[in-house]
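tool_call: predict_structure(chain=1)
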Amino acid sequence: MKLSLALLSITLAAGSLARAQEAAGDRVVVPVRNTTHPRKVDASLMHGSITVKSYAGKEVIVEARGSSGSSPDKGDRTVEGLKRLDFPARGLTVEEEDNVVTVRMNMNSGRSGDVVISVPADTSLKLHTLHGEISVEGVHGELEVDSLNGAVTLANVSGTVVAHSLNGAIKASMDSVDSTKPLSFSTLNGSIDVTLPADFKANVKLTTDHGEIYSDFDFKMGGSITQRNDTSDGKFRINIDRTLTGSINGGGAEATFHTFNGRIYIRKKK
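tool_result:
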């Protein structure tokens, strides 16, 4: 079953969707439909931040926050004594199908609009924004987060994480880790600061082109990544890059940490 709500046309849609989901202003409540497997939330924005937090309820609650109204530099406010009626600056669309809740926001005039999503703790996430920060708290599942220009912050999450930012720091604190799946944290410009359980086991690959690496885990170092090149003209060349490999607590699934400009911190959860 597929449900869709565009807030710009909420008056027209209210009748057909009244039994399926509740909407008030910039707030949409999507009720639980299938309890046999966890939900997934897929949220993507052009301009704005995404905040996801767990709570004790069963519904997914989506709230849009940000500026509204037409840009003041577009047209006259009044014409012949008539006041201009402005369109909302944001159009929020929420769809649910087969336990996947999709959230999109289309912005007029390049204005920013943030989204706050409340989910059951057992929820997987796929979050993307071009210009904005991503923050997740207290969620257990498969987390895939990507910000082009903005920091990524994950607090008290569990499961597995693939986190990327082009321009922004990444900070994560994990209560538990799915030992069967890989972890990945990467950014071009920014530090990476990850706190992991003391019993975390992984084969680790760490790369920073312009920065240092710090940890209070006991690493069994495997050396640096090298590239060997034997050519037919007799030349011999070995390149050694700024990548360290090793294992933590005897090794396990792969965990990669990569930044071009920034430090890497891998902390043991106290």
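agent: Residues 5-25, 68-73 have pLDDT under 50 and may be disordered. Proceeding to next step.
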